[in-house]
Amino acid sequence: MEIHERDVLLRDLTCNNVMLDSQGRPWLIDFGAALISETWPVQPPMTVGTPRCLCPEASNRGPLDQRCDYYSFGNLLHELWHGEQRWAGAAEFAADVADAIPDPVTEALRRRIRISEAGPCELAFRLLGREPDTRGDSLQPYLDRLRTWMDQH
Fold first, then answer.
1. Mapping DSSP to helix (H, G, I), strand (E, B) and coil, where does residue 51 land?
2. How confident is the model over 37-83, as pLDDT tens digits?
3. Are the beta carbons of 126 and 135 closer than 8 angstroms?
4. From 12, 65, 96, 137, the catalytic residue
5. Is the dihedral of CA 51, 57, 58, 64 positive or negative?
6. 30 has catalytic annotation
């Protein structure tokens, strides 16, 4: 995401924080939870963001980098694709229960589905990996695949 090139971490990428213009282009509209840093990972002073969209490392108050936003983007893709939130207990979510959230991606699934062959659902699942390292170092391959898939369908 271009925003990461500007050393900004959103921390609250949700459907509610994306608006479409008259040409259907998405725009981010809420930067209230954003962090700016020249070095990553960064240890935020507190946990902020929409609880149901928090990456596990934010929920555990751990150090964050751009992969936190990749997780949130996976959650956004899931909501757009399925028309519903990933899990129902969002209102009762607390930072100390992050380990109880099931990881939607098994190691076998991660190994079998290549990004170049994935559809929106598989892309979302890859981005929703519990460990930041499973999400990759760049969102660009996911965005490229999503564009290709959209052009084909």
1. helix
2. 888 888 887 888 888 888 888 888 888 999 999 999 998 888 888 77
3. yes
4. 12
5. negative
6. no
